[in-house]
Amino acid sequence: MPLKNPYETLLRISEEINTVHDIDALLERIMDRLLEALEAERGFILLRNEGEGGRFEAVTARNISKESIDSIRDLSSSVVNQVLDSGEAVLSLDAQADQRFAGAESIVMHQIKSVMCTPLKKDDRLLGAIYVDSRVATRQFDEQSLTFLKAFAGQAAIAISNARMLNMLQNENRVLRRQMNTGQLFPEIIGKSKPMQQIFDMIRDVADSTASVLITGESGTGKELVARALHVHSSRSNKPFIPVFCGSLAENLLESELFGHKKGAFTGATEGKIGLFEEAHQGTIFLDEIADISMNLQTKLLRVLQEGEVKRVGDNQLRKVDVRVLSATNKDLWKEVEQGNFREDLYFRLNVIEIHVPALRERREDIPLLCEHFLKIYAQKNKRNIKRVTPEALRLLQEYHWPGNVRELENAMERAVILARGTEIGPEHFRMRKSAADIPIGKTLKEINKYAILKTLELVEGNNTRAAEILGVSRRWLQYQLKEWGMVRGN
């Protein structure tokens, strides 16, 4: 079937597709314009999926269902796979009579009269293939059609490659901008791990709402930092943020702190006092260790959340307050509800949104960033010229289980900065707590000592001098032990 003005058509289509930069829209445009130019009935484009082991997948199609594409790819041992394997185009003027397709059920089933398929290549790199066919005898392809398809595929491959590159650069730019913004928006919360990125996303999503947020996680994970970030990025940021540690005060003192008291309300109340809820009016109050408050205080807190009212101790007057309540706990609060220690209605009022802060052992990849952060703080504070934490020390820190989480790491870094005498912090500057899991069970003392020595050597990559420093023994003694075990090694 002769083409009308093939060169003009090719030029016009090339100019058009090179203005489309969205990869999905581009593939649709390529398919539409190709079928129009060839007066083809059906077609599809295969592209290599770099994320799926380089497998070729159908990314767009016209007048062909996915099942039909799979069926055609069955015969593609003679067409599509031949093109992908050889990198050369294939044309069948009469598919029904073509011996290459003998026994191909889909040719008969789909009544295909003519077939063309050509590779999509950019700089000798195979991107995929374009397949078209016709089931109408008056629209059978010829050599001119194949020449046009090959020239068109060359332009399409360039456009697809450019669109993919642009898409990749835009994605990288978004990631970098997000990481940069994360550092600017949450300078006190250190971390680039996936769990921390999810927390940053949650903070962005809920910061400016009025919803109560329950922040969960082990002690020392940084729950108050999350609460402060929620306040700072809310519309209440220019109003008070008041943290309250609920586990440190007796019930009567905590009640007076939260709700205030009237003069003479109890012995020692020589004057009236405004409560923290009133102080936090139009701002945010953060109730840390919320699981520790008594049932009596839970009832009064529920009234604040439901009615927006507080009553000072010894006073009958109700006072309106507009306060956003953030709370935190290191306990399983729902378990406390089930055990009768916490009100179910209060639980649901506090837990409109839950943000879980992961333990440090669940985001070990953030430990180098945290070390760098604390090193800067405590080196400056203690006027120490310490440049870095050595790789051996970082390996030690990343292998440790951190029961005290970020708070324990901060304390360890502060101690290491104070103890270090040079410009580096090494493993010898840390004294990590041992857990039962760190000690081999059912071993003799001699075997445990050997285990500790070998683990230390592994940590410092076989450096005898460094291992001896960490173990608190002489290098000569260490070498003697290794010789006893038939494991003499150099420095």
From TrEMBL:
UniProt cross-references to InterPro entries, sorted A to Z: AAA+_ATPase, AAA_lid_NorR, GAF, GAF-like_dom_sf, Homeodomain-like_sf, HTH_Fis, P-loop_NTPase, Sigma_54_int
Coiled coil region boundaries: none
SUPFAM superfamilies referenced in this protein's UniProt entry, alphabetically: GAF domain-like, Homeodomain-like, P-loop containing nucleoside triphosphate hydrolases
One GO biological process term: regulation of DNA-templated transcription
GO molecular function: ATP binding; sequence-specific DNA binding
Residue stretches making up the Sigma-54 factor interaction domain: 189-418
Record keywords: Activator, ATP-binding, DNA-binding, Nucleotide-binding, Transcription, Transcription regulation
Name of the protein described by the UniProt record: Sigma-54-dependent Fis family transcriptional regulator
Species whose genome carries this gene: Caldithrix abyssi
